[in-house]
From TrEMBL:
Pfam families: Erythro_esteras (PF05139). This is Erythromycin esterase-like protein. SUPFAM superfamilies: EreA/ChaN-like. InterPro entries: Emycin_Estase, Hydrolase/PRTase-associated.
Amino acid sequence: MHEQLDWMRRWNAEHERQVGFYGMDVPGWCVSPGPGVAACLERLPAEPGDRELLPAADLGSRITLPPDPAAAPSVPAGLAESITELVGRADAAGDTVAGQCARGASRVVGFLEHGLYPGAGRNLRNEVMAENLELVLEREQRVLVAGHNVHLQRAPSFDGTTTVGGLLAPALGEDLVVIGGTHASGRIPDLDPDAPPGGRYFAAGEEPPPPTEHTLEAALDAAGHRAHLVDLRRLPEEALAGSTALRAQTPHHTVLLDTAPREAFDAVCHVHAVHPARGAADVP
């Protein structure tokens, strides 16, 4: 990420057409509406009660939900209603960014009160990310999105819910191009949310086994390149006839997605081996 930011700054210093950056995920990591409320209030004229709303909406700084749902932060009485009123204030002010920040905070309250899956095929986190991207697309000519395959692919995710790609595809049509990322070897850093910041991402365990024969990773790695980009739309049907699954981007590659590659992606960028980027993981 540091390298990307350095490149963006150099580009913007030398070119008239500027490159910018947006965050698209749920504010507060799905565990606290505080960041969304704070971002909204920063853009609106102050009103009585704002100073009290900020601490009420700050439910902690965890970066993931605890494994036990009962341990999730409880929503103070009246907070949901206050945030709903904040959405109305932002809309009345005509500030779409403030409104979306407040809606994100409202969705976090929904996560905490009702869970991530409000109905069959629905994942509230994916829905929020899709809504945020729609707002960004209204402001920009072209957007490049970086995220896990299971969020961005067109096909349903491993839990059967509609992905960001699936939500955006009907409206964007051919303007949406989904590029998957795969690899054959190397460890993906795991996450320990309770560790100090310097140790949250770590590479643990043994080297994962090679991909099984029926996976997209195995088919692409058979080409023998260190890295290559494959346009699935131009690839002959028989080239991936035996590929019926792809590996989820988990540390030990224990989750397989039974998905036809062309149903998920328009193209795939495959690298033979991955390793933690500088600063992304502690040395095991």
